[in-house]
């Protein structure tokens, strides 16, 4: 399926590894030129170099901390030609209310929650003025069924789900679509660390409805579709990709 993304420009945050790197790869495969943002500038540039060589697309890297207002403003200005924004940066730690102290909670939300919202605040008016654009927020299935053991993450994801739905219900009036993706467990570096720490992790994954966890590319393919005109009538919607895990509970 041709997603008609060739020649379009996208800004992807958290693009140096994991789901963000996979999203960049998929968009580059579709011929999309890219702005890639992350804190690790060296890893980001290494990934960008490979994308340029393999797919012949233009890739600009931005080493930024999305918790820092000046970095956000610099990124938004430098990526002003992007018609697609993929918010992906951030990883809120697990733990109960007692486990996740106020400093840790705020530090995580400054990146994953306020980082998304503040970047959208800078990008959305520009897309609205142009009359076209797409914002895809990669959130997390923990927001659909919050638990006490993932309280900061579940609450943050639920907030981003509400934010996405609210803006996604208004954006199409101005030609801008806003959608969200809620991944369940995905085979990223975080999962690799968990597996190394406990052999019980794989047993838990085997008990999932699908018998496995997602590959980053599967999430990336969904993001690319939602960013394309093939999904032109979808806005204000959160799409869950978790192999049936949320539905099973």
From TrEMBL:
UniProt keyword annotations, A-Z: NAD, Oxidoreductase
Alphabetical list of Gene3D superfamilies matching this protein: NAD(P)-binding Rossmann-like Domain
InterPro entries associated with the record: NAD(P)-bd_dom_sf, SDR_DHRS6-like, SDR_fam
NAD listed as a keyword: yes
Pfam family for this entry, one: adh_short_C2
Family, similarity comment: Belongs to the short-chain dehydrogenases/reductases (SDR) family.
Designated name of the protein: Short-chain dehydrogenase/reductase
Organism: Amycolatopsis nalaikhensis
């Amino acid at each position: 399926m041709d997603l008609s993304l060739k020649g379009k420009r996208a800004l992807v945050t958290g693009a140096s590894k994991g789901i963000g790197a996979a999203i960049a790869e998929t968009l580059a495969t579709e011929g999309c030129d890219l702005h890639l943002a992350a804190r690790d500038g060296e890893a980001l540039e290494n990934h960008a170099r490979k994308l340029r060589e393999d797919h012949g697309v233009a890739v600009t890297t931005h080493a930024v901390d999305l918790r820092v207002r000046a970095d956000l403003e610099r990124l938004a200005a430098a990526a002003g030609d992007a018609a697609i924004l993929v918010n992906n940066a951030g990883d809120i730690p697990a733990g109960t209310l007692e486990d996740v102290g106020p400093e840790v909670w705020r530090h995580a939300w400054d990146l994953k929650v306020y980082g998304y919202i503040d970047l959208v605040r800078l990008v959305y008016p520009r897309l609205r003025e142009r009359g076209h654009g797409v914002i895809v927020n990669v959130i997390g299935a923990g927001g659909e069924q919050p638990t006490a053991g993932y309280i900061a993450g579940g609450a943050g994801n639920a907030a981003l789900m509400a934010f996405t739905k609210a803006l996604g219900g208004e954006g199409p009036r101005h030609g801008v679509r806003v959608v969200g993706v809620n991944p369940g467990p995905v085979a990223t570096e975080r999962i690799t660390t968990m597996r190394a720490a406990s052999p019980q992790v794989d047993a838990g994954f085997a008990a999932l409805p699908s018998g496995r966890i997602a590959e980053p590319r599967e999430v990336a393919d969904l993001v690319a579709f939602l960013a394309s005109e093939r999904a032109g009538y979808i806005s204000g919607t959160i799409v869950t990709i978790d192999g049936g895990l949320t539905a099973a509970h």
